[in-house]
């Protein structure tokens, strides 16, 4: 990390690229302080996080239950899985034109795009997790009188949880990538918009500030989700 | 009327049961009745259909022809990996005590089970943190905890070392003394069958049918070197055509 900053400083001092297109580390620190003082940076962070959290929560809230149904019911699985696979393979960015036409500019198109990016992978991962639960668990559950909602709460959900957590972690990363693209085109605030705005204003220092903040938040969110994998009741899914 | 009375006295009954998987005939015309409280051991060569027989008895599998009748609650103890990995050892065993309403009674029975399997320090461990033998002991404790009418054991001691195996047999015998249950034990271990069972059923090669039935009336627990146990082992080995082999072969047949 330190080496990269040094290399960056050397490159900008040598003016390999014109300084207007290649800001120095010092420029970026100044830009960072400027953005914090104006309060814009914090607003952008809040706007982006709000969109990701909302879109992702809706995708998980709808995707996990649908995955449970598809995992348990072979008939539904055969009917719907090709469709789910199709939409999963479709880049969520392809929805940008429709997102703007349907939802205008602001929170809604970004939330829609994040939903489209996260929903299908979550459905697929949950379906696969349910379908791969060893039947022995259900036989044991029957022996010990677990049925109905108890079976769901005490067997199915804990059995798929490790795989679902992994899927949520991967998908959250995807959602964070998508929000930047969505805001660049269909936003008037947010970190993606901040980058686009900096580019239009030829403020390369602010552009780099935006990039660093996006990357850093992505890492922090991932670290937080990794903590879920340390819960005692899911550790079995990651160890052998 | 008559039928239901008989069902009550015989918790498990197979009537000319056959089971085939596609063209593979696993069981052929097998009839077997297990009385209430009886301990039946089923021994036979590897792959002869012992587990299929257990699956039919538990109701997990259905016969191709014939009927299976089962009266009472049933629990099966699997060779391994039947524990819920997301629950601790204590929580897994408590599965078997779900219906025990009284808290103090549940704690007492839980402690009794931990005494049985001798895993006191491991209550809050998860199954993946235990060895295969320890997991088998936890499975056994879960099935023995609380009330159940019928227990189906699929080689429950196979992953244990010999000394632990001997101890578990003794404990199982003691526990059945205080809480009688109908037990069907599938095992490779002829000595184990002779130490525990009221009746030993020797199966033939696939398609399996009953080759020999042996009754033991000496009370449990029985020592592995007790005359009746040794005699039963010898008779089964003779039936399997191993009686003239050297001691070395006898030992190996036992381990198999």
Which descriptors apply to this entry?
heterodimer, A: 240 residues, mainly alpha, MetI-like fold, 0% strand, B: alpha/beta, Rossmann fold, three-stranded antiparallel sheet, globular
Give an overview of the whole structure:
- The complex is a heterodimer of chains A (240) and B (256).
- Helices cover 80% and strands 0% of the residues of chain A.
- Chain A contains 10 helices and no strands.
- Chain A is elongated.
- The mean pLDDT of chain A is 92.
- With 256 residues, chain B is α/β, with parallel strands linked by helices.
- Chain B has a domain of 146 residues: Rossmann fold.
- In chain B, the strands form 2 sheets. A 6-stranded mixed sheet of chain B has the order 5-6-7-3-8-9, sandwiched between helices.
- In chain B, strand 6, helix 6 and strand 7 form a beta-alpha-beta unit.
- Chain B is globular, with a radius of gyration of 18 Å.
- At the A-B interface, helix 7 and helix 8 of A face strand 5 of B.
Tell me briefly what this model is.
The complex is a heterodimer of chains A (240) and B (256). With 240 residues, chain A is mostly helical. Chain A has one domain: MetI-like (MetI-like fold), CATH 1.10.3720.
SSE map:
The complex is a heterodimer of chains A (240) and B (256).
Chain A: H1 2-13, H2 25-38, H3 40-72, H4 74-89, H5 96-103, H6 107-131, H7 135-143, H8 148-186, H9 191-200, H10 204-228
Helix pairs in contact in A: 2-10, 3-4, 3-6, 3-8, 3-9, 4-6, 5-6, 6-8, 8-9, 8-10, 9-10
Chain B: H1 2-9, E1 12-21, E2 24-34, E3 39-43, H2 50-58, E4 65-70, E5 74-77, H3 89-95, H4 103-117, H5 132-144, E6 150-154, H6 162-178, E7 182-187, H7 190-196, E8 199-203, E9 210-215, H8 227-239, H9 247-255
Parallel strand pairs in B: 3-7, 3-8, 5-6, 6-7
Antiparallel strand pairs in B: 1-2, 1-4, 8-9
């Amino acid at each position: 990390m330190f080496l990269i900053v040094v290399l960056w400083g050397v490159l900008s001092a040598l003016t390999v690229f014109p300084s207007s297109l290649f800001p120095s580390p010092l420029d970026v620190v100044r830009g960072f302080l400027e953005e914090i003082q104006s309060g814009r940076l914090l607003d952008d962070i809040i706007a982006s996080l709000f969109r990701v959290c909302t879109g992702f929560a809706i995708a998980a809230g709808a995707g996990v239950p649908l995955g449970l149904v598809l995992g348990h019911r072979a008939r539904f699985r055969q009917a719907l899985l090709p469709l789910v696979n199709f939409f999963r393979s479709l880049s969520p960015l392809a929805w940008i034109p429709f997102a703007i036409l349907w939802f205008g500019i602001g929170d809604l198109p970004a939330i829609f795009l994040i939903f489209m990016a996260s929903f299908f992978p979550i459905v697929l991962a949950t379906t696969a997790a349910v379908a791969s639960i060893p039947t022995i668990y259900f036989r044991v559950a029957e022996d010990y009188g677990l049925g109905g909602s108890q079976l769901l709460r005490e067997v199915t959900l804990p059995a798929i949880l490790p795989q679902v957590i992994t899927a949520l972690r991967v998908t959250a990363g995807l959602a964070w990538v998508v929000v930047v693209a969505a805001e660049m085109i269909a936003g008037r605030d947010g970190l993606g918009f901040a980058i686009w705005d900096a580019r239009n204003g030829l403020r390369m220092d602010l552009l780099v500030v935006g990039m660093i903040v996006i990357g850093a938040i992505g890492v922090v969110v991932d670290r937080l989700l990794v903590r879920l994998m340390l819960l005692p009741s899911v550790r079995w899914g990651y160890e052998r | 009327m008559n039928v239901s009375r008989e069902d009550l006295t015989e918790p498990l009954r197979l009537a000319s049961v056959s089971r085939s998987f596609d063209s593979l005939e696993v069981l052929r015309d097998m009839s077997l009745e297990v009385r209430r409280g009886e301990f039946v051991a089923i021994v036979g060569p590897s792959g002869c259909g012992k587990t299929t027989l257990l699956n039919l008895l538990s109701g997990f599998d259905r016969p191709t022809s014939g009927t299976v009748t089962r009266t009472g609650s049933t629990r099966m103890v699997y060779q391994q990996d039947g524990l819920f990995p997301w629950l601790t050892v204590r929580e897994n065993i408590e599965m078997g005590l779900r219906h025990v309403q009284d808290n103090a009674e549940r704690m007492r029975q839980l402690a009794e089970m931990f005494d049985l399997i001798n895993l006191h320090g491991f209550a809050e461990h998860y199954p993946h943190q235990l060895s295969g033998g320890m997991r088998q002991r936890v499975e056994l404790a879960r099935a023995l905890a609380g009330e159940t009418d019928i227990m189906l054991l699929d080689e429950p001691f196979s992953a244990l070392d010999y000394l632990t195996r001997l101890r578990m047999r003794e404990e199982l015998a003691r526990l059945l003394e205080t809480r009688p249950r109908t037990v069907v034990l599938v095992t490779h271990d002829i000595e184990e069958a002779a130490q525990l069972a009221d009746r030993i059923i020797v199966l033939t090669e696939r398609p399996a049918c009953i080759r020999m039935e042996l009754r033991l009336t000496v009370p449990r627990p029985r020592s592995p070197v007790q005359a009746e146990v040794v005699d039963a082992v010898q008779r089964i080995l003779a039936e399997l055509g191993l009686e003239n082999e050297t001691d070395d072969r006898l030992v190996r047949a036992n381990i198999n």
